[in-house]
Amino acid sequence: MLIQSDGERHDSLIRPATHRLTTRRSSAPFMPFDGTDIHCGLRALFPSLGLVFSHIFMPIILPDLPIADRIAAEGISVMTEVEFLRREGISVIPQQTAERQDIRPLEIAVLNLMPHKQRTEKQLARLLGHTLMQVHMTLLRTDSHESANESTDHLERFYKTWEDVRGRQFDGLIVTGAPVEHLNFAEVHYWEELNEIMTWARANVCSRLSICWGAQAALHHAHGIEKQPLHRKAFGVFTHQAENWQHPLVEGFDDQFSVPVSRNTEILRTDIEQVKELDILASSQETGLYLLQNINQRDTYMFNHPEYGAKTLRKEYERDVTAGKRDPRDVPLNYFPNNDPSLCPKNNWRANGRLFYANWLNQMYRLTTSDIRDIPTLSNDRSSHDRV
Fold it and tell me: What is the extent of the structural domain holding 159?
């Protein structure tokens, strides 16, 4: 890490396990902390320095993806499988130094069900790489579905199937959304494989995050809850509020915050309230439920899209207009300045998205173990269909 003071350079390798006395779990050699802890800790170590903390984020480890250079250019610390990509403001440590650190990267698998996979790769890598933890991201795809929008070369080079990794354990699994809302779950042709993956994840993944349709599918798998069609697509950027301010996933959220929404279906609050294992963490008065988590903190369900870039909704709007599925006057709500699609939209949800993923990884650190082979499992839990 590069520390600057009045134009001077002070190179200091600050390990996430720097202050052993603050570690409260003997089973793990690392303990999460927020940026305030780092600032206070460094000021205690260097009280005479006027420190400037412009970059305090740990790297994300990516395969040698085409998106790696673009992610690094955005100021996010990225490591390829071969070398660390340099980032302005932070000194780069060699692989052998990283291996000597008293830490291991969080192993995160991403089951990417989206048609434009490289766009989703970049969005998630941007958020996972903008935290204090080292993250190693493994990209997964279903074996029973052939992507029509991504090259076979890209999938074969950078993706693994579930069969490739089913003998491994992961700290986290992200299941993305998919453009199959119009189908019943059983009609999705990779539904059987997805069910097997979600069952496998209960015994081999510490923390699971499902997004949009992926969240609806995970709730149906775990609790038998059905998605319900909306009379009109929820499409735009909407105001949300937290409902449980004490919960670690919404710690630090603003009283109101914006999140992009793009879906034709919803999960009803009344159905969630019948499942005592689920906590409602955030919602929107306009678009309904946003964020849920199981009380064991292992399963998180997020129905909207804080990972979206500034232009993502614009691309979806233009796609639907071109296909004749949307009137050009029916623009995403609260998105374009003055509702004028010729004007460039502004991203006013970026900070909240970063905070959510930082909170999720931080919570995962508290749940996982130093040896990934010993991660806590849910395979012996009682039936997930228990109701109030």
Answer: 58-309+347-374
